[in-house]
Amino acid sequence: MKFLRYLLFPFSVLYGCIMSIRNFLYRVNVFQSRSYPIPIICVGNLNTGGTGKSPMIELLIKTLQNKHRIATLSRGYKRTTDGFLEVHPHHLSSEVGDEPLQFKINFPEITVAVDANRQRGISELLKNHPELDLILLDDAFQHRKVKPSLSILLTTFNDLYTRDFVLPTGNLREFQTGASRADLIIVTKCPHNLAAEQQIRIQKQLKPRTYQNLLFSTILYSEFVTNEIEYEKLADFDNFTLVTGIANPKPLVTHLKSMNKEFEHIQFADHHEFSETDVKMLQRESVLLTTQKDYVRLKSKLKSSKLFYIPIETQILNQTGFLEKYLEGTLF
């Protein structure tokens, strides 16, 4: 597979050049980016998937929700509906996408919407909710039709974009130079005890511009697992099968193994829509543990109290209070 990717190198160069030309045309205003009267924060990546966008969106919500009226806008990946749609807790993940539904379940007081056309989505949000004073765009770093007030670029500790190449040889959506559009670069999924020397080494690899801030974050796993009705201590939770349909389940697997958990792991592709065959197979397992993103896709199909998920959150390392001060000072 890796050899085949190398053979496709000329196509990677062609694709990267096409993306660079597109970005250039936006930069010189041949293609127009639209601005809006309220702040728009764009969260995205250069790599394809698995950088922790959803936990980062949730961190931004937690950081700002007490002072601002927030909406999130996603495209609603793999949903069966079209156009603009406001998300409600009663929706199925197949109707609105798993991540937007997760946002609405975790933060019922904010407005959550989906629309592949981000300009139309923002316009609908502003028309329907004139009280809004901040919109978070999920996975929109390459969506140039909207001019964000702030762009946040995510890259993972074990898969920095500087060590990768453009699709299909690598996993980048555009050349590394696209990182210059970011105002804030966050290295995600770092070890909790990331040393200052390692941070300096990563900073030298990423080479942020003078106008760019660089932060490091880590994933925190809850001490409890839940099915929205009951909670159990993860330390006492045993004899389960782990089922994942996310881009990179390795951090979760590593965390569970660090707690000396023994389990079988059934792994599906990212955003996998569980079929009847999948559900019948999973139904035979005694107890299932999954991520919340998978849980919102599974819970309506696998009607069982034996399905649990482990909540997670992202935390900025060694910069207590910086994110809120930075966002407030930059946007408001």
UniProtKB/TrEMBL annotation:
Listed SUPFAM superfamilies: P-loop containing nucleoside triphosphate hydrolases
Known EC number: 2.7.1.130
GO molecular function: ATP binding; lipid-A 4'-kinase activity
Membrane-traversing stretches: none
The reaction(s) this protein catalyses: a lipid A disaccharide + ATP = a lipid IVA + ADP + H(+)
Pathway(s) the chain acts in: Glycolipid biosynthesis; lipid IV(A) biosynthesis; lipid IV(A) from (3R)-3-hydroxytetradecanoyl-[acyl-carrier-protein] and UDP-N-acetyl-alpha-D-glucosamine: step 6/6
UniProt-listed GO biological process terms: lipid A biosynthetic process; lipopolysaccharide core region biosynthetic process
Top-tier EC class: transferase
Domain of life, per lineage: Bacteria
UniProt KW keywords: ATP-binding, Kinase, Lipid A biosynthesis, Lipid biosynthesis, Lipid metabolism, Nucleotide-binding, Transferase
Family, per entry: Belongs to the LpxK family.
Function: Transfers the gamma-phosphate of ATP to the 4'-position of a tetraacyldisaccharide 1-phosphate intermediate (termed DS-1-P) to form tetraacyldisaccharide 1,4'-bis-phosphate (lipid IVA).
UniProt protein name: Tetraacyldisaccharide 4'-kinase
Organism in which the protein naturally occurs: Psychroflexus sediminis
Organism lineage string: Bacteria, Pseudomonadati, Bacteroidota, Flavobacteriia, Flavobacteriales
Gene this chain is encoded by: lpxK
